[in-house]
Amino acid sequence: MASWTPGSCPRFRSGGVHPSVPGRGAASPASCWPRQLVTGSPSLGILRNAAERIGCPTTEKEVAGRFGFRHLLGLPRSRAVATNLMQAVRAITLDVGGTLIEPWPSVGHVYAEVAEAAGHPGLDPQLLNERFTSAWRARGDFRHSRQAWARIVDATFSDVIAQKPSESFFPQLYRRFGEAGAWRVHEDVLPSLEELASHDVPLAVVSNWDERLRPLLRALKLEGYFEAILISSELYFSKPSNVIFEHALRKLGLPAGDVLHVGDSEAEDVRGAREAGLQSRLLARPSGNGPGSIGSLTELAGLVRDSR
Questions:
Q1: What is the pTM of this model?
Q2: Which residue range is the domain that position 169 belongs to?
């Protein structure tokens, strides 16, 4: 079979651009091959027939190399295969909570500290952590507004103290989580951002957060690493919506396939980014969580290098 070109693919004959996705960018083999080749484990037979089935001529070797299945053809694995990236990464977008920073020492510790200052001493941080986790899981359609956070906090302290925090110390608690002292920057963050910056890799934040995020990133000395900061409360769209990712692409001036998004949520970060056309990686510290994940942000520079 002949090598793939935009003109050889019936889905991309209109100027080499996806006809149904304006501004998505130039076509590539990766953008028209079936999704199961990205996420699945095809047999050699499926691999042999995939390109012919969708009408995009290419070689088995090219398909295998792009998606990390070179071993099915008896070919040695390469570092590029290990990254499993579809095309060159020209920019990276990052989640914030759980990816760049985490509450410190924990949500429960901060809650207990603020509650004690408001006249509620002796609360167990571990109990508050457990109750916060339950309230967060039951949050439903969470808009990252002040009112939404008040409901989460009230649910966390329900049956722990008599008065609702929203009627007493919630303003102090809300303000506290806007301060750098309530957060810890993960150890792999600054070395990774520095290395990516040294290689001129554009970076952006894509985060479900509220009006406290910009000043918080500034206080943590992280703001300057990013060319753009996209916050759900400002855009009125939260991950996994395509809209917040599309705003990031416009800020970066790049097609979706050239951008890698990294975060710690399978639903919001990985699936959300892929639905918007971006490449994605799940951050699962400390050692990753199988294919399509990384264990540290320090792996990003290598992913970028090996994808090019």
A1: 0.74
A2: 107-182
